[in-house]
Amino acid sequence: MYQILPTYAADPGLRPDPDWAENFALADVPAGVYDLVVRLGGQLLTQRLTVEAGRTAYARFVVAP
């Protein structure tokens, strides 16, 4: 199963949340292991993420200029 979600990362005025240092968030994700795929600026980036029940999980994608 996969899901495509829009983001606001291409917004030139984008600034991370000062407390969470994030530019995109998903809520209420069931515990499990997920493969994250991000396409931005012609680059395709992937990362495996483990979500634990009741915890916040982080993924960091760095896009080269």
Which key phrases capture this entry?
single chain, mainly beta, 2 strands
Would you give an account of this structure?
The protein is mainly β. It has one domain. Helices cover 0% and strands 28% of the residues. The chain is built from no helices and two strands. The protein has a two-stranded antiparallel ribbon with strand order 1-2. The protein is globular, with a radius of gyration of 13 Å. The mean pLDDT is 82.
| Arrangement of strands in the largest sheet | 1-2
Number of strands: 2
User: What's the order of the H and E elements?
Assistant: EE
Gyration radius (Cα, Å) is 13 Å
Helix content, binned percent: under 10%
Head-to-tail CA distance between termini = 31 Å
Task: Work out the count of structural domains.
Answer: 1
Overall morphology: globular
Brief sketch in words of this structure:
By secondary structure, the chain is mainly β. It is 0% helix and 28% strand.
Question: What's the structural blueprint in terms of helices and strands?
Answer:
Elements: E1 32-40, E2 43-51
Antiparallel strand pairs: 1-2
